[in-house]
Design goal:
44% helix; 4 helices; alpha+beta; 5-stranded mixed beta sheet; Acylphosphatase
Length: 163
Amino acid sequence: MTKHQHSTLRRKIAMTSFLLLGILLSMMVGSDAFVMGRNHAELFRVAAETASASSTSQSGENMNDPNEIVARRIVVEGDVQGGYYRSCVLNEAGRFRRLTGTMSPPDDSKTAEIYVEGKRKMVDGFVRWCKRSNIGLSQVVKVTEITEADPTGLYDSFYCKTR
């Protein structure tokens, strides 16, 4: 084996090891922790936040149940008037996390309200996704308010309203 072949093999082994570590970490933390393109520090930050959140919420019995149905109202501000952000929210909440609810159309201001309900772990993951705020392209969006709500059960899917 030549020196070049040996270094190529070592690189392939290192990349495979990193990929397996990411998959294992995502299985321990949750499905939204492993996203291609994140750097090492962000992966470990997400794992640490999840671990601290689960340890602080152990005071209540229902706080640990990931399958409990919960609801959140999330107010976002920024570039929410274009269809790209609504499409991303629809995909993330409705298709990827199987949440129900709605995203209200923004009025003339730059704020919109997202109402989601579903399993606790899926709703919490969606809230973390919203807080990340790096949707892509040149979208600048930030979460201004998150409130707990009582699940209504009125929605059978996730809807993004248009005017």
